[in-house]
Structures are given as structure tokens and as C-alpha cells.
Design brief:
Pfam families: MR_MLE_C (PF13378), MR_MLE_N (PF02746). With 369 residues, the chain is an alpha/beta fold. It has 13 helices and 17 strands. The longest helix has 19 residues, at 97-115.
């Protein structure tokens, strides 16, 4: 089969509550959807959120990258030769990882449908009967006043979530207070992950994390405590606290991940398809993590079910992935799609449907000429 048509459209889904981090506040998922159609009519779907404060990609830049660079480069290529398509996708333009990710996901979806297999059974290094078909995700608690964060945390626990990812980064002592009050409210059995979203200096990070350690708040990990480009700062924090440090915005590429692993810029790696440019590069990072004995999380931006489903398939397939931060669909008020993994509170169940499983996307598409 060959790539015949590439089309783009947009979807907007309101969030249950505003999503607030140290970097931004968002009320809706507003994402670009890609549809790639083979010459036999089979369709593959991908998705990209405009996350300018993290990836640098805007709605306009994502569409322009696909319309003027990616689509002309890969149209009419043979889907049986997926490595050649991925090489062309990678080199047709620099950066623009979100645009590449949307197309990459649609291509993998299409390729797995050609093989008549669910994607996770094509991505794993393990035997087919050993891959995970059930995952557990955390739920993100946005940064707000302490009282509101406590209420949101209790509501999440009531919904069955046992792992909470708490957004902080708005002030050292205030951040300790937030985590203390949440821990007191939810009890000792709930796993707490802390995400600073680059919100601290290296000194603030060490001071704040040590304060949490002294109070025995039971923090599983702290994610991206300092700016993504402050590699020395990441090393400094990792070396000076007992709590595990998870690198997120510091890792976009395979090269970033290997440097973090080899030079101990963090203990753990958060792989997000929108940072890596899709599944192809993410698989390379998983290979490196398995070689170095480093555990990984598969995370997501503010994405809906299409691209998060691709992350679910990757998480299910790879043994280095021991954590899932794939709560994007849980943050949305509605699920407008048909098919794909089932998101039931903290549990995610993978069907045996071909590809990523999405069968219907209610979007008005425009075919790129």
C-alpha cells in the first residue's frame, strides 16, 4: 500500500477543570488531527497539541510543517517500507516535533492496520503473550491554592486514582505546604509524584525537595525541577537529594536521553511523543533505557484520545516503561472518538483492534493538495 492522501483538521474539547502549571493555564484541548489514507482506503490517525511553551510549536507552525514540508515529502511512499518513510519524515525539516509526531502516529496506526494487529504487539521487544494489556495512570492535580488542590486530590482518590501527579513550582515553602496538606488529606497509601515544570532554580529545588524529605512526605519522584536547558542544574539536584528525579523537558531526542543516562542528569526519563517527534524516536529512547537499566514514564501533553492512545500502546509494549502519565482523556469532559483503549478511571485497557484502535474521528478534514 502507498500513502495516497494526507488531511488535517481540528478538534476542541473542554477540560473538566482548568489545567494549571508553572508555565501556563489552559481551559480546552485544541489539537490538530492528521488523517493519512492509503491507496486501498485504509485510514490512520494522529494528533498534535500546540504547546508553544514546551515544544515551541503553535497551531500555525504545526499545520504549515505538515502542509508544506511533510506531506510533499512522504506522499506516494510505500507503507511496507516504514523505516524509509520515517527517515524522510525526520529529515524533511528540522525540529517541529509535534507536527512530526502527529504524522508518525498516523503512519504507525496505518502500518499496524496493514498487519491486522494492534500496535502494541508490533512495538514490543517481549513475546506477544508477555506484553501488558492493562495500565494504570496517574492523574494530574493542577497548581492552585492549597485548599483547592486538596479538594481536587480527594476527588481524584474518590474516583479510584491511587497515583497523583501534583503540579508545583510557584514557590518553595508554599510548594512544601501544598504537598504536606495533600499528603495529610489523602493518607499514606496514595502515591504522590511532584512536577515542578522547570519552576525552581537549582538551589530552590534542592532546598524544597530536602524539606519534603525531612517531613517524610513520601514523594515517589520530582519531575523536571529546573529549566530544561540547565543540564548542570539537573545534575546538581539529582546528586544532592534522595528523591528520584525525572527528566521531562530536558529530553526531546535519543541524544538527550543518552546524555541524561550516562551523565546522571536524572534518575528517570519521561518520554512524550510530542517531544520525540513520535513513536519512531521514542522506541530508540526505550532501547537506550533498557541498555542502561533506566526506568521510564510515558507521558502526554494536553492531548486527547488519539495521540494518548499511541502512548498507551508504547507503554504496554516496552519493559523499561514502569510508569504512565496518560491522563489526557481523563481531563477531558467528553470523549468524541470511537474505538481505541478504554479509559476507566485510573485503569487503561487495550483492545486487540488493529492499529491504535481509533475507528472514528468527528473532525472536518481538509485534504492537502
Amino acid at each position: 500500500m502507498r500513502i495516497q492522501k494526507i488531511a488535517v483538521g481540528y478538534i476542541s474539547i473542554p477540560l473538566v477543570t482548568p489545567f494549571k502549571t508553572a508555565l501556563r493555564t489552559v481551559d480546552n484541548v485544541n489539537d490538530l488531527i492528521v488523517r493519512i489514507t492509503a491507496d486501498d482506503g485504509t485510514e490512520g490517525f494522529g494528533e498534535a497539541p500546540p504547546t508553544a511553551v514546551i515544544t515551541g510549536d503553535t497551531k500555525e507552525s504545526i499545520e504549515a510543517a505538515i502542509r508544506y514540508y511533510i506531506a510533499p515529502a512522504i506522499r506516494n511512499m510505500d507503507l511496507e517500507d516504514l523505516p524509509s518513510i520515517m527517515e524522510k519524515l525526520e529529515h524533511c525539516l528540522a525540529k517541529n516535533t509535534s507536527a512530526k509526531a502527529a504524522v508518525d502516529i498516523a503512519l504507525y496506526d496505518l502500518y499496524a492496520k496493514m498487519q491486522k494487529k494492534p500496535l502494541f504487539r508490533l512495538l514490543g521487544e517481549k513475546k506477544s503473550d508477555k506484553v501488558k494489556t492493562e495500565l494504570e495512570t496517574d492523574l494530574t492535580i493542577s497548581v492552585n491554592d492549597t485548599e483547592e488542590m486538596v479538594r481536587d486530590s480527594l476527588a481524584a482518590v474518590e474516583q479510584g486514582f491511587r497515583i497523583l501527579k501534583i503540579k508545583v513550582g510557584k514557590g518553595g515553602s508554599k510548594d512544601v505546604e501544598r504537598i504536606r496538606e495533600i499528603r495529610n488529606a489523602v493518607g499514606k497509601d496514595v502515591v504522590i509524584r511532584v512536577d515542578a515544570n522547570q519552576g525552581w532554580t537549582r538551589e530552590e529545588a534542592v532546598s524544597t525537595i530536602r524539606a519534603m524529605e525531612r517531613e517524610d512526605l513520601g514523594i515517589e519522584l520530582v519531575e523536571q525541577p529546573v529549566s530544561y536547558h540547565d543540564f548542570k542544574g539537573m545534575q546538581y539536584v539529582t546528586a544532592n537529594v534522595e528523591t528520584k528525579i525525572l527528566a521531562d523537558e530536558s529530553v526531546f531526542s535519543y541524544e538527550d536521553a543518552v546524555r541524561i543516562m550516562e551523565e546522571r542528569g536524572a534518575d528517570l526519563i519521561n518520554i512524550k511523543l510530542m517531544k520525540t517527534g513520535g513513536i519512531h524516536e521514542a522506541v530508540r529512547i526505550c532501547d537506550a533505557a533498557e541498555e542502561h537499566g533506566v526506568k521510564c514514564m510515558i507521558g502526554c501533553m494536553l492531548e486527547s484520545k488519539v495521540s494518548v492512545s499511541a502512548g498507551v500502546h508504547l507503554a504496554a509494549a516496552r519493559s523499561c516503561v514502569t510508569m504512565a502519565d496518560l491522563d489526557g482523556p481523563s481531563l477531558c469532559k467528553t470523549d468524541p472518538y470511537e474505538g481505541g483503549p478504554q479509559f476507566m478511571g485510573p485503569k487503561i485497557y487495550l483492545p486487540e483492534d488493529p492499529g491504535i484502535g481509533i475507528t472514528k474521528v468527528p473532525v472536518r478534514f481538509e485534504t492537502i493538495k
